[in-house]
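User: Show me a protein chain along with its predicted structure.
Assistant: Here is one chain, sequence first, then structure tokens.
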Amino acid sequence: MLKKIEYTEQQKKLALYAKALGHPARISILEKLTLSSCCYSGDIAEEIPIARSTLSQHLKELKISGLIQGEIEPPKIKYCINHKNWNTAKKLFAEIFK
């Protein structure tokens, strides 16, 4: 019988961040957001040559991970880096890549 592995909260969180960083489009989105305080999804769509529906899915994945946050300002959505989680991610990655 296999023993069930228990993962720490840090391991789970790091895996969530790693999944969010697992596509070049998401890296590109994060790079854009780190260079400005916030961006509207339309501005991101102009700079990243992917379909808006695809962009929306990537933004969703980044929001699920907590690395970004979105704020609805009808008819637009403004996205920003979630600095608390961004700093946590940097710390967790730094610890694993000593």
